[in-house]
Amino acid sequence: MALFISIILACVLELRWSGVSIQDWWRNEQFWVIGGVSAHLFAVFQGILRVIAGVDTNLKVRAKAAEDTVFGELYLFKWTTLLIPPTSLVILNMVGIVAGISNAINNGYDSWGPLFGKLFFSFWVIMHLYPFLKV
Q: DSSP secondary-structure letter at 94?
């Protein structure tokens, strides 16, 4: 819990010094968590494959234009393998919340204390991955 409090206080200081709004800061937090569990994870595996097996992938980056009709379909939401890890994390945390509460109900009063820390962490992860629940 002290770790989360220190992270939140560091973020409050960043907000005060940079002048960024809370909504912009929260979207940035969500972006980094989603990127960290999806695209960055796959980039690490791609780097390992490149070093060990010599597999090379070529990616073409294109600029996004509003009136672009040729590549307009690239900006539609499509299910890709990059969405599997964050979606799995959301599902696992939701199952963990239900399992934790049922375990605490079955085991009595002594198990409720550790449950609150676990619930806090699970809700923290779900809040960061909330855009996957909206899709």
A: H
